[in-house]
Design brief:
- With 455 residues, this protein is an all-alpha fold.
- It has one domain: Growth Hormone, Chain: A (Up-down Bundle), CATH 1.20.1250.20.
- Helices cover 76% and strands 0% of the residues.
- The protein is built from 20 helices and no strands.
- The longest helix has 29 residues.
């Protein structure tokens, strides 16, 4: 506590600058990410209608949910490279407008094959948005602030579930047969339009870089520009120096593997939770399923927000390991307790909280390591190949359910094994760092055996 007459740390010029940057930058990025995630996952609520309209099987649904990520992976790195050339303001706005149009067009698909096509194209359109956000944040927030702000922005993921689940459940009921369209078609149509509007708002309100921020004082601009430049210079001593070097860097490859496994443990929650809740609670309405699906994501949003403020070492992998360990245990409890709905719901809620919280805790590692041209390609590579899990894991869950006659518990082995393997890879990175103590400070995954140092 500050003494009388002294300024508290929150009143320092640094704190004042970062508060102003946060208020200006973070809300619009969060809104964009919320809308993108709703458009990505609203197929989970259209699933029931797709089954009735086209006879879609569980495996076909898993393929439709996952093919989004094939387009996403193919276009991710090129998209981020273009953003470096044309700027975040133009490119991120373009991404939002195009994915909004394509998402809305899903309302008019005539068959399963067209669902596949538009989901693939939607992935291409949205590619580059999240890594673009991360790259944009590295240009505005110093290392000490980055874990907190990444966690804050990524709260958009569970918030999308909190907002999207009851909203989509309401659309299914309220808009059924409105203007001759099934309710599931309105889920796509209404969900896509906000992205177009937000893309226009984004273009009109976003500032490209701190040096152009007239809403900062001259002193605040100078401090922020010099601080970020110094940290960028420090990172360039160990980071891949070019776009091509990223693809040969062992640290980037290892981090990509971790993120792929982490996403394998998280994505099935997004795409299968409504149908699992519906199967367990057979008498529930669409609106009730929507509200129940929102609860785990609401608690996950709170957990993500708090964890970003508790972590004191942005390079520590210990918080990620803890989150993954909790998710493994609670996924196992969920799988064996589906016959007891209350216990299963509590377990899947904790699993969702842990699996979602692991994501921002992970992203503090590569953003503290990558710099320059390598940052654009490295972040995009990790995110794109990691998000290939969005194709693999939902499809694997659907295949297991088809093969076992709808055994949801057995299908959860996908999430359990993925998180266990993610912990194994992180442990291997830690051992590698321990064997090279002279270089440990430059590794993105340091010693996890002791408490994180306070700042």
């Amino acid at each position: 506590m500050a003494r009388a007459g002294e300024k508290s740390p929150d009143d320092s010029p640094r704190a004042a600058t970062m508060r102003k940057v946060t208020r200006r930058v973070v809300p619009v990025l969060m809104l964009g990410y919320i809308v993108s995630y709703i458009d990505r996952i609203n197929i989970s609520f259209a699933k029931f209608g797709l089954e009735q309209s086209f006879g879609m099987t569980a495996a076909q649904y898993g393929f439709a949910a996952g093919i989004f990520f094939v387009g996403y992976v193919l276009a991710e790195v090129p998209s981020n490279m273009i953003m470096v050339k044309v700027g975040a303001r133009i490119w991120l706005s373009r991404i939002m407008v195009t994915w909004g149009i394509i998402a809305a067009a899903m309302a008019f698909v005539p068959n399963v094959e067209m669902v596949y096509v538009l989901r693939f194209v939607l992935g291409v359109a949205e590619a580059g948005f999240f890594p673009g956000i991360l790259l944009y944040l590295t240009r505005w927030f110093p290392n000490a602030e980055r874990t907190k702000v990444i966690a804050t922005v990524m709260v958009a993921i569970p918030l999308a579930g909190v907002i999207g689940s009851p909203f989509n459940g309401w659309i299914l009921s309220a808009f059924h047969d409105f203007l001759g369209l099934d309710g599931w078609r309105w889920v796509f149509l209404i969900g896509g339009l906000p992205a177009v509007l937000l893309g226009i708002v984004f273009f009109l309100t976003v500032t490209e870089r701190p040096a152009d921020a007239r809403w900062l004082t001259a002193g605040q601009r100078d401090w922020l520009v010099s601080t970020l430049a110094a940290e960028e210079s420090e990172r360039t001593t160990t980071a891949p120096p070019s776009h091509r070097a990223v693809f040969r860097n062992k640290k980037v490859i290892a981090l990509t593997a971790v993120y792929f496994l982490l996403q394998c443990g998280a994505y099935p929650l997004t795409y299968w939770m409504p149908s699992v809740i519906k199967d367990v609670g057979r008498t529930l309405t669409s609106v009730q399923v929507g509200w129940l699906s929102a609860v785990p994501f609401l608690l996950a949003a709170i957990c993500m927000y708090l964890s970003g403020r508790l972590v004191r070492d942005e390079r520590s992998s210990k918080p990620v390991m803890i989150a993954l360990g909790i998710s493994v245990v609670t996924f196992i409890v969920t799988a064996v307790s589906l016959g007891t709905p209350a216990l299963a719901f509590c377990a899947i809620t904790i699993a969702t909280m842990a699996a979602q919280t692991a994501k921002p805790l992970f992203w503090s590692l590569p953003t503290a390591f990558l710099a320059g041209a390598g940052a654009a390609s490295g972040i995009a590579l990790i995110n794109s190949l990691g998000n290939a899990a969005g194709f693999v894991s939902p499809f694997a869950v659907g295949w297991i359910q088809d093969a076992t006659g709808g055994n949801a518990g057995l299908s959860m082995t996908v999430m359990i094994l993925a998180n266990v393997l993610a912990m194994v890879v992180i442990a291997a990175l830690w051992r590698s760092a321990r064997r090279a103590p002279g270089k440990a400070a430059n590794l993105p995954v340091p010693d996890v055996s002791g408490p994180s140092p306070s700042r």
